[in-house]
Amino acid sequence: DPAPTAIPLQDCDRCDRVFRAPEPGHCRDCREAEPYRAA
Predict the structure, then answer these.
(1) What is the DSSP annotation of the chain?
(2) Do residues 14 and 26 touch, judged by C-beta distance below 8 A?
(3) Domain limits at 15?
């Protein structure tokens, strides 16, 4: 069995909180605080 891939740590672009995600961006709290955007 292959070992599970670790998801890297990222810094939130707004509050500098560290979170795990495959891509840089915003933490959960900052994403929930911003209004929903139309795609």
Answers:
(1) -PPPPPPPEEEBTTT--EEE-SS-B--HHHHHHSPP---
(2) yes
(3) 1-39
More confident site: 33 or 9: 9
**Which pTM value belongs to this model?**
0.65
Number of domains into which the chain is organized: 1
pLDDT in tens, 2-24: 788 899 999 999 999 999 999 99
Calculate the alpha carbon distances from 8 to 1, 11, 19, 25, 27 in Å.
Answer: 21, 10, 8, 12, 13
